[in-house]
Amino acid sequence: MDTLLSGQLLFAALVSGSLYALVALGLNLVYGTLRLLNIAHGDLVMIGAYTAFWMFSLFAVPPLVSLVLAAALCALLGWAVYAGLFRRMLAKPDLAKRVEANSLILFYGISVILQNLTALAFSSTSRGYQYLDTVITWQGISMTGNRLLSLGVAATICFGTLLFLRFHLFGWGLRAVIERREAAQVVGVNLNRVQLLTICGGFAVAGMAGVLVSMTEQITPFMGFPFTIVAFVVIIIGGLGNIGAGILAGFCLGLVETFGIALTSPGYRSILIYGLFVGVLMVRPEGIFTKAVRS
Predict the structure, then answer these.
(1) Which of 218, 194, 227, 234 is nearest to 28 (CA)?
(2) Which terminus of the chain has fewer Cβ atoms in its 10 Å neighbourhood, N or C?
(3) Are 36 and 101 in contact (CB under 8 A)?
(4) Domain span including residue 229
């Protein structure tokens, strides 16, 4: 494999890896603080993608501006889900255990509702738009502007989140809840506030990921499930609730997928992803980077 091809593949791996890391970031935040497995996470990506599509198609609003609107819409949905379904139940220890055990089913129902409402509103027709699709060549490596923008924005959000968790007072409280929920409450952390803001933030991050995805992929009401699966694979590789390791795992998955497909064929994509997933569960179920990287 020559140097030019390797550079081209590396750029593609970084683009896909940054999106995987961003999608998994929101899921990891919600699981880490609330212990809820959000199977509807990919549908938030779909909502963000549709937000960007309609804003661009109807009002010529660029995706960078739509990031804010998509984040606000998904955060509002997160508030509604938390206030309407989980707040009272999570406040009671006995009910909290039941909710955590059945969260997969609850979010599956939310996923079905979101998909079918979107299909009723916009039909199941695939949609898309062109934005910054001009090819840019640098040092012999070709890239489109939208993919370069996607890489920059996704990486900025991911690493900005890590800095927030490390240096901001609320970030310290969030990390304390992830590590030891009961101990965090003892030292004065407002658990309800942390959970509310985290689910809103996790949903908002997924919406922003959807805006970035919309620039390069087709949009349908049922596009979210593959992103949910990828997000679960990433957080299993990095370690459940480990934010920094999850981001690193997203980039690693992008590398494995891109170079694996280049060395085999596109038909092996699912085998590569699920093979890595099963291998990690068998060899190191706590996550590859659990001790190496801590947020």
Answers:
(1) 234
(2) N
(3) no
(4) 2-294
